[in-house]
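#struct-queue
[09:14] JT: dropping the first one here, sequence first, then the structure tokens:
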Amino acid sequence: MRDSIARYGLLQALVVVELEVFLKEYPEYQGHFEAGVKYVIVTGHIRYAAITSLLADEDPQFDERRKTLREVRIDVQNHLIDDLDAIFHQENQKRLDLNVFEEALIFQRLQQRKGFSHAQIAQGLGVGKSTVTKRLKLLELDDAGRALVLDGRMQVATAYELVSALPGQPDLVVAAFQLIETERLSPGEAVNRIVLAETAEPVAEEPTVSGSVGDDATGEPDGVQDASEEGEAGPAFPPGVHVGDPAPQEKVQASQSQDPADAVPEPRVPQEVPEPAPAAPVDDVRARTRATALRERACAQLVAEYAPAVDDPQATLIAAGVITAAGGQILKQAHRWMRAAGDPDAEHLEPSAYAATVVARGNGALLRKLAYAVALAGGERQASDRRTGLSPAAIAHIRHLQDAGVYEPATEQERAALGSPAAASA
């Protein structure tokens, strides 16, 4: 940019708003400006920096150009103040390498200034709604948790799972991640271990894991935009407004603040978007998380104790079909329970290889035991899915655990679905 301006001069005016207008909309910036400042740059920061650099350069070859840059053209567009937040976000999104917490602070600012929903923020800024939801959730991490993410030790998806399963308990999130690191547990296993320890429940030797801990309403991987949201229109701007400078490296910050959250207020969204369903109360989330941990400990116990008495060829054939048809996550969960039950092959083989080996050997007792573990894993996946209510399959699964005497409904939803009176300790 500097070389271009040195050769051709400033070809495009800096877009600005008057300082008085800016401070009326953003009073929190009072005192951020030196005396004599009259304007706040909307777009053109890189060009302005290049001009400043040329003016400070004493190289004689720039003498003539410096004479033309003592004063530069500006385009005062005070009406942009209404859409300034959206413009800043568009510019920052293209030109700043923001980390997930800086993005989260941006979304939080948009939410708090005028009460926009996650869907409205997503529509106005052209991002996926799940991205907004997940980034905001990460703000529940404490400094230690954020440091783990920024250092690259804890993946964003893992952080989101842990925060969702342990709401309002950032110290437990860090403790759970330490278990993941030191004992190579999955996020679900770590959460279950932490939850059972915190509730003074005896911790079983068997590892427990939830296939659905931390799933959000979209079920999509972190950072992936919903297909239905691709191509959504970005924020609306006044007719004829040019947004952005041609320089791809330009970084735009409101009032030259170094805080990305301050640099990006909220967008003006052209139409109403329905509010998302309210989030479940923290106590309900904690109750569901504890119930998941207790159910999975019960499943591990049932698998360890299962011993088919009669060799039934038809049942063995059905068992082989159940195992072969099982998905990867269900096989992985069943494999963990079989490993905890002491099967030596499960200790040394990966889940898919272990399942194939059991089917190929044709041992009826082992086939039926693994099929039982697979059935329990499928039922537990249904029961721990937080995106929907309890399905008939989930109710049947919980009732089976109850009939086996290893679990009592631990949430109001479970008790209502099974007709249980009051909570009983597991």
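[09:21] JT: and here's the second one, same format:
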Amino acid sequence: MTKKPKGFQPDRVSPPGDTILDLMQERDWSQAELSQRLGFSTKHLNQLIKGKVPLSDEAALRLERVLGSTASFWLNREARYRERLARTEAQEKYRAWTGWLEQLPLAELKKIDIIPRQRLTDAVKPALVETLLQFFGVASPDQWQQRYGDMQASFRRTRQNQADLGAIAAWLRLGEIKAEKLEARKYNKAKFTQALNQIRELTIQPPQQFVPEMRRLCLQAGVKLVFVPAIPRAHVSGAARWLNRSNPLIQLSLYGKTNDKLWFTFFHEAAHILLHADGKNDIYPDDPNDTSSNSRQEHEADQWASEQLIPPAYRHELATLRAENEIRAFADKINIHPGIVTGRLQHEKKIKYSQLNKLKESFNSFEG
């Protein structure tokens, strides 16, 4: 995150009333005389001078006529003063909200430069609260809770007990920020189905080729696709959600680190978009390492992804594969990466998880 330049911020910004007093002294006017010239009561002028009442457009025009300068000058003085008062009040709130930081993955956010890499002392916590409110795009921890914390009710997850809500929220927000930079057409289910058939052919390509092509095909169908590195304790390899009524988002990490998990996760999330579009308020953060979910939607997405990658017509032939050469020949026959076939056989316990992993491709990172 780009850090804002810190300009000079004086400890005290005086109200327009200080300038009014200076001009009164130059003219040797009393408050009674100036209030008469302005058409204000003495009490109102006194409150205006002390900054206890805001300076209105009409008052600025009267000051322009009586004391000189321009109405814009007086209104700008008032605006700067009120802004400074508001910022002072905000600083007090930030100090009161520092407990919110305990819910967030601060160490991970430091590593990706969302927050400064500094010791977490009481002195820096209020500024950290402000930075993180800006990062999440919310006005207060209450709004964060409403937008991200209450998302837990919409999560259809596998690792309910192990999920760290703050880590998931941070990961989802990073995806939102990336998605905001993408221009997409309105979602079209037929085009997305066609795009998925084309994307399946990309599994044998390296990331530098399949990533931009996946994104292009998805965008043409109105689906935004972003890659955001995994955040520890989130236990999320991918997520599907609707950003608005026009565009769904598929967000992927490299939590699984192997191509079989990456591709299964992508098609699993795509299935949520295709099959569960009615639940536009639902969010589907998924972990392919866990199979204990009782969610109907998750089972439907699993089945759809499995059949999209290896069609049901090949199920019986798939069940007979054991040797490396058999897997390679089968993968070549159906035009898919052999690592995906290996992962499927391991998942179905046809071979051990320790077997034939050399057929998979590992991803430590790639630009998404």
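[09:30] RK: nice, looked through the second one.
[09:31] RK: Residues 71-96 form the longest helix (26 residues).
[09:31] JT: good to know. The radius of gyration is 30 Å.
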